[in-house]
TrEMBL record:
<keyword id="KW-0808">Transferase</keyword>
<dbReference type="InterPro" id="IPR051531">
    <property type="entry name" value="N-acetyltransferase"/>
</dbReference>
<dbReference type="InterPro" id="IPR000182">
    <property type="entry name" value="GNAT_dom"/>
</dbReference>
<dbReference type="InterPro" id="IPR016181">
    <property type="entry name" value="Acyl_CoA_acyltransferase"/>
</dbReference>
<protein>
    <submittedName>
        <fullName>GNAT family N-acetyltransferase</fullName>
    </submittedName>
</protein>
<feature type="domain" description="N-acetyltransferase">
    <location>
        <begin position="13"/>
        <end position="178"/>
    </location>
</feature>
<dbReference type="Pfam" id="PF13302">
    <property type="entry name" value="Acetyltransf_3"/>
</dbReference>
<dbReference type="GO" id="GO:0016747">
    <property type="term" value="F:acyltransferase activity, transferring groups other than amino-acyl groups"/>
</dbReference>
Length: 179
């Protein structure tokens, strides 16, 4: 199944595949102290190793039909804003589809994560990929928790150091029906 949002657009963003050429522009994310913890990176990695790991994982997802993060490009400026997409995840031995999003620090608190997350959620339900969609974040990642809540999700459970928020197709339909 192809869960990628390549070519999709929102008001401000365009989704495209991540390429090796994006490495240098994405690297600043790993200079932030909390990022490795928030992304569940293995302990003890340098910033370069973290970025390498991220890209290796991204291309593995693409090659194995496990969804993946798309690059988020500002339609007006052409700036690389961050990454977002639908990711196949295993949570407590169950395969789930997750809305994932990561934004470069200089673009934090400008609504980009929310805009991308809403597009990912709607894309999932419109294409009927999964009837239950999740977002996972580290317990200390309040910004991502707020994005999940604004995306119509509620706390389902906590697994280790990660909160799992979810929304069902029926919940989404109730919120998107216009009368």
């Amino acid at each position: 199944m192809n869960y990628l949002l390549t070519g999709e657009k929102t008001k401000r963003l365009e989704f495209r595949l991540v390429t090796k050429e994006d490495y240098d522009v994405w690297f600043p994310l790993f200079k932030e102290n909390t990022v490795a913890k928030f992304l569940g990176m293995p302990d003890g990695m340098s910033q370069t190793e973290q970025c390498d790991y991220w890209f290796k994982k991204a291309f593995h997802r693409y090659e194995n039909n496990l969804g993946g993060m798309n690059a988020l490009i500002d339609k007006q400026t052409g700036d690389f804003i961050g990454q977002a997409g639908l990711l196949v995840q295993t949570v407590e031995d169950e395969e789930r589809l997750e809305v994932g999003y990561s934004i470069l620090p200089k673009f934090w608190k400008k609504g980009y994560a929310q805009e991308a997350a809403i597009k990912c959620r709607d894309f999932n339900f419109e294409h009927e990929f999964s009837n239950n969609l999740i977002s996972m974040m580290h317990v200390d990642n309040i910004g991502s928790e707020i994005v999940a809540i604004k995306n119509g999700m509620t706390l389902e459970k906590q697994v280790d150091e990660f909160k799992v928020f979810s929304i069902t197709r029926n919940q989404w339909l109730k919120k998107t029906v216009v009368i």
